[in-house]
# Entry
Amino acid sequence: MPELPEVETVCRGLRSALVGRRFLSVEARRPDLRFPFPDGFAARLTGRRVERVDRRAKYILIGLDDATVLLIHLGMSGRVVVAPRPIHRDAHQHVLFRTDDGQDVAYSDARRFGFMDLVAAADLGSHPRLISLGIEPLSPEFDGSRLAGLLAGRKVPLKAALLDQRLIAGIGNIYACEALFRAGLSPRRLARTVSGQRADRLAIAIRQVLGEAIAAGGSSLRDYVQASGELGYFQHRWAVYDREGEVCPGCNGGPACIDGVRRIAQAGRSTFYCPRRQR
DNA sequence: AACAAGACCTGCATGC
DNA sequence: TGCATGCAGGTCTTGT
# Structure
């Protein structure tokens, strides 16, 4: 489920639910997700007060009052739901946080590709999962010339470069496809061929696509008392992702678009694009 | 050094 | 209906 916009949506939900609150109890119902929980995980969290909730790439960072940070990654299928106690229990609900104001925060993850870790705040930057992350695409420093610099000399397909978290942090398979469509650039083009105006267009497209998805998720949060990225995805209509064979929104059924959106495999993942509008 | 491929794990849609 | 197959929003590790 989660790329940057969905993680951001979950972060916002957790921020409003948790900042200033204490964990009355924490229950890990199994010893691991993708990795084992750190030693004393539940005990170390119990009684802690949440001071802040931040996001870095697709990671959720929950800052606690003892100068530690709870690091959460949602993997492919991780979900977070906040509800008044007692929360509905589901089959893959692996971690349950109870707060001092009567809320339950449940983490569910069928595939268990997600993970959690506890880190000293001072060591956050050197955490092995965070240390090599690239630029935040929504940060003010991210623009066309910065993007061109990151792509320069790279012989990988452009789509693969967008998915490389060491270059840009937070773009996943869906928004890589969508941003390339908006920028009119083929996912197969070599990354190093994108500079100048093409890089400008792509940087703008990335920011727009991510920003609109966050706006969609954020607006749905007001109506549902959940921090769930699923809502953002549910509301979003993709132009090309998962639309193999359909006419893309830019082509309006023109003769050159007879085959519609094409699906190819790149680095083992599906890429959707319009060969007519993306060059 | 850079890149592709396999691995992790479960659920779901599809086709026979 | 049952079963096999392929695919899924991520990223770490291994092999070329």
Summary: Residues 220-232 of chain A have pLDDT under 50 and may be disordered. Helices of chain A lie at 4-18, 41-45, 144-151, 158-163, 173-183, 196-221, 230-235.
